[in-house]
Amino acid sequence: MTAPASDQPVAPGEAAFGVDIGGSGIKGAVVDAVTGELRTQRVRIATPRPSTPDNVAEVVVELVTRAKWSGPVGATFPAVIKRGVARSAANVDESWIDTDVDAVFSKATGLEVTVLNDADAAGIAEVRFGAAKGVPGLVILLTFGTGIGSGIFLDGQLVPNSELGHLELDGHDAESRAAASVKDKQKMSYKQWSKRVQTYMSHVEALFSPDLFIVGGGVSKDADRWVPLLNLQTPVRPAQLLNNAGIVGAAMAAVERGAD
Ligand code: BGC
């Protein structure tokens, strides 16, 4: 099915194209910056193998071209991103390290592309439009997927590039024990896996004393099967934007950069 094209002119700051780059799929849509709603149907293309910068850039070009988009673009990336440059590569091809991802995607698309960490993007979406909207104080979003991503927000303001998925826990990289991919690989039930999440989140809680946790990633759609099993001082809310959080947050980052 083809997405409705976005060929109407868009006022600056009104909308942006969001791209969510993940290990298995790359998704994109035009996002309304006022409501956070998708203005075009979300399109998903399988992540190329190997997922090198050039191969991924080709997919980003295809997504914006299919939507006939010519405005700002925001893209998530599952790594530390400092001023557009990837500084880590935990679950992606090592060739990304030190790549200026902003520059690669901007050159390929001919558009201004803003890249940010995937969990930071998901957090922006939840803070603007979802489970953390209007929440004061310290909010920590944790995404459970292939790895564990984190987004830290103080009074709605992002503290970028936290990497709480890589805290050391009992001598292990925390995401290698408590990511959702570990649950799948080891065929754990939600009840079994929630014990690992409990150990991990109580550690994060002890270090940061947050006011609110938001839990995201694919497993947030089954939140009622594991969130009630957690025993923490901090309230825990499931993410609300589910599959669209990355796209929406990336687009918002692009819009807000344009407004600087
Ligand atoms: C990466 C983070 C990323 C998270 C979720 C981790 O392995 O280090 O940068 O946010 O996975 O994709």
What report would you give on this structure?
- This is ROK family protein.
- Pfam families: ROK.
- Belongs to the ROK (NagC/XylR) family.
- This protein has 260 residues and is α/β, with parallel strands linked by helices.
- The protein folds into two domains: 12-120 and 244-259, ATPase, nucleotide binding domain (Nucleotidyltransferase, domain 5), CATH 3.30.420; 134-239, ATPase, nucleotide binding domain (Nucleotidyltransferase, domain 5).
- Helices cover 30% and strands 24% of the residues.
- The protein has seven helices and 14 strands.
- The chain has helices at residues 53-66, 101-109, 118-129, 175-178, 180-185, 190-208, 245-258; strands spanning 15-21, 25-32, 43-46, 73-77, 81-82, 85-86, 113-117, 138-144, 148-154, 157-159, 168-169, 172-173, 212-216, 236-238.
- The strands form four sheets. Strands 3-2-1-4-7 form a five-stranded mixed sheet. The chain has a five-stranded mixed sheet with strand order 10-9-8-13-14, covered by helices on one side.
- A hairpin with a 2-residue loop joins strand 11 and strand 12 (172-173).
- Helix 1 crosses helix 2 (101-109) and helix 3 (118-129) crosses helix 7.
- The model has no long low-confidence stretch (mean pLDDT 94).
